[in-house]
Amino acid sequence: MNDVSIISILAFGFLLGLKHAVEADHVAAVSTIASEHPSILRSSFVGALWGIGHTISLLIASAAILLLHIEISDRVSLALEFAVGVMLIVLGANALRKLLRGGHLHMHVHQHGGRMHAHPHLHTGARDAQNQSHHGLKLHRRPIVIGMIHGLAGSGALMLLVLSTIRQPIVALVYVLIFGIGSTGGMMIMSALVGLPARLTAHRFTRVNAMLRGAAGAFSVALGLLITLQIGFLAWRGWM
Description:
Strands 1-2 form a two-stranded antiparallel ribbon. The chain has 8 helices and 2 strands; from the N terminus they run ααααββαααα. By secondary structure, it is mainly α. The chain has helices spanning 3-21, 24-34, 40-66, 74-100, 141-153, 155-165, 169-200, 206-239; strands at 104-112, 115-123. It has one domain (3-239). The protein starts with a helix and ends with a helix.
């Protein structure tokens, strides 16, 4: 494989990663978290953490398949996809639970370094919501774990694509890394787009904000149910 072919494949991997980030299950999972952050920066940070977890899983699966020749069976792939469906249901239900507990947004005014300024706060009535929207970006585990689950669930199809075009393991691993960078960038953009309405409605349109968060949670639950039912039907047909 010459240098031009390698560069073309890596560029294709980056573009494929961007496209991969906007798949419905990915957007649904991250939206339930990003919509809770009334800040575009924080929302995009959620997407970045998702991308890190997603890339870690893909690299581990790639190394296992390419270097150790471990195969991912169809049954394992279905089980991982089923786990994604369950995760979407849990994430959506949790978002709806927070809304039902009276979560609301307001602008908090305080003073730092002798200067008064305001930023949005989210309160849900839960202890973990007290520091939801304050200064500093905290490394939350939830989007990383979500990304890792998505990475494992999609690793089988991705590796088939990689193995069908790339014969050198090192190049294949670099391809997966570039793919992960592309998917991270794509998810950061999508998370920022999700966070934009939250930011615009944080002060004067709290009802609209609650509706947006409710829509994100409901979509996540509905998609999770659809995925689990489809996989359950496939499993039932396989047992017949």
